Amino acid sequence: MNTSFEFVSFGWEDVDLPLSYAFSYQSQSSSSSLSSSYLLIRSRQEISHCSSQLPKGNGNQFQLQTRLEVFDNLDGSSMRYVSEV
């Protein structure tokens, strides 16, 4: 089964435009988000959306944690995490 996941980011504001966005997911060999490694879905670009197929997640519900990192023009950044099923 091949499912394409859509990643969309909106509502971010900053005075130091333009904003850029990087999407990634947690490596399956990582168990905690504090010490985990993330694999890129799409590297930093000014486009705030992308789509990708993801590997099967962990556990009974096959969850996989994804990460969005948003950067401003001065390289300030913020991250958001979401567990996908």
Count up the domains.
1
What is CATH's topology name?
Answer: Immunoglobulin-like
Which parts are unreliable, with pLDDT below 50 for 5 consecutive residues or more?
Answer: none
State the secondary-structure class. mainly beta
What is the makeup of the main sheet? 4 strands, antiparallel
Average the pLDDT over all residues and give the rounded result.
Answer: 89
CATH class: Mainly Beta
Percent of residues in helices comes to: under 10%
Q: Architecture, according to CATH? A: Sandwich
Order the strands across the largest sheet as they lie in space. 3-2-5-6
Number of strands: 6
Reading the helices and strands in chain order gives EEEEEE
Whole-Å distance between the termini?
Answer: 14 Å
Computed Rg: 14 Å
> Helix count?
0
Q: What portion of the residues fall into strands of 2 or more residues? A: over 45%
Oligomer: single chain
User: Shape from CA axes?
Assistant: elongated
Keywords:
elongated, 4-stranded antiparallel beta sheet, two-stranded antiparallel ribbon
Structural account:
The chain has 85 residues and is an all-beta fold. It has one domain (4-84): Immunoglobulin-like (Sandwich), CATH 2.60.40. 0% of the residues lie in helices and 48% in strands. It contains no helices and six strands. It has strands spanning 4-8, 20-26, 38-45, 49-53, 64-71, 77-84. A hairpin with a 5-residue loop joins strand 5 (64-71) and strand 6. The chain starts with a strand and ends with a strand. The model has no long low-confidence stretch (mean pLDDT 89).
